[in-house]
Amino acid sequence: MEFLDKIFPSQIKIAPRPNYSPENYQKLAEFEKFNYDPNIHLPEYVINLKFETLYMKDIDLNKDEGYLKFRNFLKPGLAFTAPFKAFSEEGVKVLREIVEISKSIPQVNFHTKRQPWNIRGLGYMSDFIRDLNECQKLAKLASLFAGTNLSPFTYFNYSHINIGVPGSGKKVDQWHLDSVGFVIVTVLSDCENMKGGDLQVLKRDRDWSAIDLLNSQSDDYTPEEIFTVKYPGPGFAVFMQGSHIFHHVTSVKEATEPRISLIQSFMVSNCFEEDSTKFSTFKGGDPEHVSYTEFARLYAWRSKEMLDELINRTDYDEANKEERKNDGSRGKQKALKIFKMAIDELTNAYSLLNGEKDDTIGYIDDKTNQITGYDNIKIES
Ligand SMILES: O=C(O)CCC(=O)C(=O)O
Ligand SMILES: [Fe+2]
């Protein structure tokens, strides 16, 4: 048995699949030749005990009691890992072929102010991408790093790809916090002689006061608190809690080919844990007919999971016994707590989806040095 199956004996939860593909994102015949097989496309994972890591507890600035309790629960909670080999040679080869095909599909190519070129939406169009993102082995590896069970995030995010064109003078990605809790960021291109194109992270937890520090970073000066990821080669990845630590990717100055990176996104499986999802980011960037439906389903699933917990509880008898002893409060209190959480989840979803509420976290625009929201404004490629 794989060591990951020993640690996580039960299946990772996957949100129910949509039984349709949104308009413009139907299955594509050109992708049919690729069949995902973790035994071929993933390597044997070897965990190096001298793994270079940064623990959330070491960069926490937030000393709020509730927050610390949550963090304690998430032990060991790696903020980010050292690079590890996430994909086999064959895995890299297939993914690169998929990227090449995708470049000629207009509706999956996006050019935004934050990211000059990204590819999104492949989960609906390619079974390989769908199966990779729903792979138990990869999700269990991410769960091991996070210290809690993680599930794949929404379909349109499955295998988000960034492309950095050498000499474009544009950052591949501006300083930002992710709008999803956890990511595995893999480089697929040859970076051996690349200048620039560095993924850099700030070693502080959600510290907005660091904006000046981030903006002071220039080509020839990297403040000590900013860490540069050194990828040994294609197929190597880092796992990170991108929703907690600011990160960006510098512009590619020189390289033998464009920089290609692949982002696998994960959210907490347990509906009762804190969730870092920020709907407004996706609302502001993805096609409207996709983001609304995906997030309606996501919030509906999370609330359903909460109510299922209430329906499937096996400790009512015990709670009821206690209840008789304790004047009827215990079982009732537990039930009320779950109802309240489900109501809050739905109220939050309702206000976000109908536009009464905005949960944007934005990114730092390098032109203005200001936090900027996602406004659906596309730029010319
Ligand atoms: O492309 C990369 O290396 C990282 C990109 C990133 O942080 C993102 O897409 O959120
Ligand atoms: Fe990111």
UniProtKB/TrEMBL annotation:
The keyword Oxidoreductase applies. This is Fe2OG dioxygenase domain-containing protein. The keyword Oxidoreductase applies. GO terms for molecular function: metal ion binding; oxidoreductase activity. It comes from the Eukaryota. Keywords: Iron, Metal-binding, Oxidoreductase. Residues 148-269 form the Fe2OG dioxygenase domain. Belongs to the iron/ascorbate-dependent oxidoreductase family. PANTHER family: FE2OG DIOXYGENASE DOMAIN-CONTAINING PROTEIN, YALI0B19030P. It comes from Brachionus calyciflorus.
